Amino acid sequence: MFTETLETPMVSIIIPVYQAKDTLRKCVESCLLQKEINPEDVEIILIDDGSCDGSEVICDQLSGAYNGIRVIVKHTENQGVSVARNTGIDLAKGRFVAFVDSDDEVTDTFLTNLLKHADEATLLVDETNSFYSTQKISGFQYIENSILNENTHVWGKIFDRKSLIDGNIRFPEKVAIGEDLLFMLDVALLADKRRCIRCIPDGDYIYNDNENGAMNSALKRSYLDQILCWRRAEEKLLSVKNSLSPYAFVSVAVSQILTALLVIGKVATQTEKRDEELDKQAMTVSMEQIEHALKVRGSFAALSIGHKIKVMLLKYSPELYLKLYAKHKGA
C-alpha cells in the first residue's frame, strides 16, 4: 500500500451538497468510518452548493463535530455540481481525491481497497465492473476498455490530486449532463501512453439512483448537454486518433445515437405543458446527431436489433416514431 510521509491527508473526499438533508449524514459517516485507515489520513470536503433545505446546517454540524478538521465546509451560491467539485479540488490537501455524491454511500473498505493498489506513479485507481486488469494500463487502454464501456462516472475512484492540478483537469462548468465523461476523458488523455491506471473489481461504492436527478427529469434545455458532451468527446478522441482503434469511434458513434434516442424519447413522452420551441430544437439536434454518427463505418451494425429498428423508423418518419413511442410508453 502507498505510504504517505508528509503531514497531509492521504485522501480528500469531495462531496457536493445540494438539498440533501435526508441522506447527507449517512453519506458522510460512511466516508469517515473506514477500516485500516488512520482518521487523520482522510478529510471530507463538503461543498454546500446553495442548499436551502437544512443541508447547509447539517454541513456545519458535521464539521463542528470534528472541530472543522476532518470535515471541512465551504458554502457557495448555487452554481452546479461541476463548480462544486472544482472548488473541492482547489481546497483539497490529500495525496488523492475521491468524489462521492451526497445521496450515495461507501462501504467501510472503500478507501482500503483503492489505496492498496496505489503507489507513487499512480494517476487513477478505479473500482469498476467495466474492465479489470492485474497490471496498470495506459490512458489509451483505459479509454477503449473502460470509459467507452459505460464507465463514464467519477465515483468509485481515487485520483492523484497533484496530477489534476498540474494538468489543469477540471469539470466543464457549463455542462449540466455529461460532465463526468469529459472529465474522465481528460484524465485518461493526461495519462496518454503511461501505464499509471489500475482497474480493480467494484463493490465498495453504493450508488443510489435519484429519481429527481437530471437524467430522470422532464425535458429541459440542459438535457441537450448529453448530446453536446458526446460530440465533445469525439473531438477529444480525434486529437489522438492514431493511438486508438477504429472501434473506439464506433463506440462513440453508438453512444451518440443512444443519447439522441433518449432525448427524442423525452420529447415523445412529455406530459406537462410542452415547450414547442424546445421540442423542435431537441428533435433537430438529435436527428443531426444520429445522421452524424451513422457516417462512422460500422456504427449501425453495432446497434442492437431494437435500436436499429428505432433508427430506421425515425429516418422514415420522425412524427410517426414520436406517436408510436408515446403510445408504447403510455404517455
Description:
- With 331 residues, this protein is an alpha/beta fold.
- It has helices at 24-32, 55-65, 81-91, 110-115, 139-145, 161-166, 179-191, 225-238, 246-268, 276-294, 305-316, 318-329, and strands at 11-17, 42-49, 71-76, 96-99, 105-106, 124-127, 137-138, 157-160, 195-200, 205-206.
- The strands form two sheets. Strands 3-2-1-4-8-6-9-7 form an eight-stranded mixed beta sheet, sandwiched between helices.
- The radius of gyration is 21 Å and the shape is globular.
- It starts with 10 loop residues before the first strand and ends with a helix.
Radius of gyration, rounded? 21 Å
Overall geometry: globular
Average of pLDDT: 93
How far the N terminus sits from the C terminus, by CA atoms, comes to 54 Å
Strand residue percentage: 5-15%
Point out poorly predicted stretches. Answer: 1-6
Strand order of the largest sheet: 3-2-1-4-8-6-9-7
Tally of helical segments: 12
Helix content: 40-55%
Strand segment count: 10
Q: What's the order of the H and E elements?
A: EHEHEHEEHEEHEHHEEHHHHH
- Structural class estimated from helices and strands: alpha/beta
Largest sheet: 8 strands, mixed
What's the assembly state of these chains? single chain
